[in-house]
Amino acid sequence: MSHRFDPDVLQQMVEHVAGLQLDSRDLISRTVELLAEEYPDLIDPTPGRWVGSKAGGVLGKVRFLYFSTREYLVIFGSPTGTQGFSGRYKHVDIHKFLLTGQIDSYDLESEDIEPLPALLPGGHTCLQRGHARGLTIHPGSWHLEYGRGAVVTTLPFAMVDTLAVSLEFESVRRSTIEFSRLIGRRRRR
User: Fold this and answer.
1) pLDDT value of position 17
2) Helices in the chain by DSSP H: which ranges?
3) Which keywords appear in this protein's UniProt record, sorted alphabetically (predicted)?
4) How confident is the model at residue 173 (pLDDT cuts 50, 70, 90)?
5) Which residues pair with 78 in a beta bridge?
6) pLDDT tens, 118-150?
7) Scanning 5, 24, 75, 187, which has its CA 20 to 30 A from the CA of 39?
8) Could you tell me if 46 and 161 are in contact, meaning their C-beta atoms sit under 8 angstroms apart?
9) Diameter over CA atoms, the chain
10) How far is CA 20 from CA 4, 28, 46, 114, in A?
11) pTM of the predicted model, to two decimals?
12) Nearest-5° angle of CA 62, CA 65, CA 57?
């Protein structure tokens, strides 16, 4: 079974958008427009609402663009910044394409005690299966995140912190509504 999204195409889009002199809101809107043009059967040009998300201590806002059992695509970020644990996904590769801001990270298991190169606008990084990072997302940073693999295995990490630590049931409810909306849209096509 082939994948629907191409990381190289996503990279080219983000490089283009990151080079525009736009504020964060317009960068995000333009990114969604380009994605809807490139993937008209997959991306709705009028995406759902923003949902609060806390996973691994990383608190931010997420907008779901696509969700299936094998792939997901979201925009994630924070106007004020955040830091925490990337998660460790044994069955999913996580690609981050930075639209604006900066993300600093470091590998949790390597012998290297230096940070990885900073992710800057237009840049791309991939958290490969089985690896984990500590990260800092600077204020005003927004990125396109693409997950490829057994996506359902990411949901416990994505939801447990929000539920068990924050007791933020409304965000989980809203996330569930957005997942259902995207899956329903796919089934109607």
Assistant:
1) 96
2) 7-18, 24-38, 155-160, 169-188
3) Endoplasmic reticulum, Membrane, Transmembrane, Transmembrane helix
4) low
5) 141
6) 999 999 999 999 999 999 999 999 999 999 999
7) 24
8) no
9) 50
10) 26, 11, 21, 31
11) 0.86
12) 25
Q: Let me know: does 134 contact 84? Beta carbons within 8 Å.
A: yes
Separation between Cα atoms, residue 136 and residue 94, nearest integer Å = 16
Residue of 71, 107, 110, 106 whose CA lies nearest to 91:
71
What domains lie within the chain, and their CATH numbers? 7-188 (2.60.120.10)
CA 108 – CA 139 distance, rounded (Å) = 23
Name the phi and psi angles at 138, rounded to 5.
Answer: -70, 155
- How do residues 41-81 score in pLDDT, each as one tens digit? 899 888 678 988 888 889 999 999 998 889 999 999 999 99
**Could you tell me the two tokens for 138?**
């600077």
